[in-house]
Automatic annotation (TrEMBL):
Residues covered by the Acyl-CoA dehydrogenase/oxidase C-terminal domain: 125-245
Pfam short name (any one): Acyl-CoA_dh_1
UniProt entry keywords in alphabetical sequence: Flavoprotein, Oxidoreductase, Transit peptide
Gene Ontology molecular function: fatty-acyl-CoA binding; flavin adenine dinucleotide binding; glutaryl-CoA dehydrogenase activity
Name the UniProt record assigns to this protein: Acyl-CoA dehydrogenase
GO terms (BP aspect): fatty acid beta-oxidation using acyl-CoA dehydrogenase; fatty-acyl-CoA biosynthetic process
Length: 269
């Protein structure tokens, strides 16, 4: 896998990954991604592979154990290893991504996460960026569903997309998503842990904003099992909590900056 891809090759890769994720999920998707060269992509071009793969996981609603590969790679372990590393979860709790799980826990967003009583600190900066892109992808999926509904749903003789209240909710969601994406693309050169923490917090906040606003736009149909929105809402609620919730991370960042007495320059605008 080349370290850099031209625009045409990147578009082809994205199309292939999207089609694969729309048809496969879980262990089957793990296998397909391995065959597509996921390990080489993560090793040679993580700055391209991570945003692309995790954003598409969010947009398609599928899942794979690639997050554990990001953690393994960042901690110097072998990509694809089956070692179980504890991941911090909201509320000072811990979970483990169970690669060999036969089923998934519906209470954990349909992800093969297993709750653990205790864990130990590991490097999570790169994983927070990955989950941030996953959250952004899920937020874009919800925005797309809400936008299409607004165009299709007619009230008082015209599409509800023409109503100012609907347009404001969709616009607020788009602004939150775009802001989160900008934060996720800040180079992790200086203060990488703080950058990753803030990026994950921004992505979580954007996804929760999308869930709230898109549910309002879709109204009752968004609660039904027949509509796809509820799958994305459940997923982002879990992903927000994984590796620290947006609320917790924001408080942690604020506490650290207050103790430091100054704010570092993380991006040059």
């Amino acid at each position: 896998m080349p370290a850099h891809l031209d625009a045409e090759s990147l578009a082809l890769l994205e199309d292939t990954l999207r089609k694969t994720m729309l048809t496969l999920s879980g262990p089957e998707l793990d296998t397909a991604l391995t065959e597509l060269g996921w390990a080489e992509m993560l090793s040679d071009m993580a700055d391209v592979a991570v945003p692309l793969v995790f954003r598409l996981l969010g947009e398609t609603g599928s899942h794979a154990s690639v997050l554990m590969d990001v953690v393994l790679h960042a901690t110097g372990n072998t990509i694809g290893d089956t070692v179980e590393l504890p991941l911090p979860y909201t509320g000072n709790t811990w979970v483990v991504w169970d690669r060999g799980a036969a089923g998934v826990d519906s209470t954990l967003g349909g992800l093969p996460l297993r709750r653990e009583d205790e864990g130990y600190p590991i490097r999570v900066a790169e994983a927070r960026i990955a989950v941030g892109w996953w959250l952004v992808g899920s937020a874009r999926a919800m925005l797309s569903l809400a936008r299409q509904h607004a165009l299709d749903r007619v009230q008082f003789g015209r599409p509800i997309a023409g109503f100012q209240a609907i347009r404001h909710r969709l616009a607020e969601t788009l602004v939150a998503i775009e802001g989160a994406e900008a934060t996720l693309t800040v180079p992790m050169v200086d203060s990488p842990d703080l950058i990753a923490l803030l990026a994950k917090a921004a992505a979580g906040k954007a996804a929760l904003t999308a869930a709230k606003n898109c549910q309002q736009v879709l109204a009752g149909i968004g609660f039904t099992a027949e509509h796809d929105l509820h799958h994305h809402v459940k997923r982002v609620l879990v992903l927000d909590g994984l590796l620290g919730s947006s609320r917790e991370l924001t408080k942690k960042a604020g506490g650290g900056l207050r103790a430091r007495g100054s704010a570092p320059r993380l991006a040059h605008l």
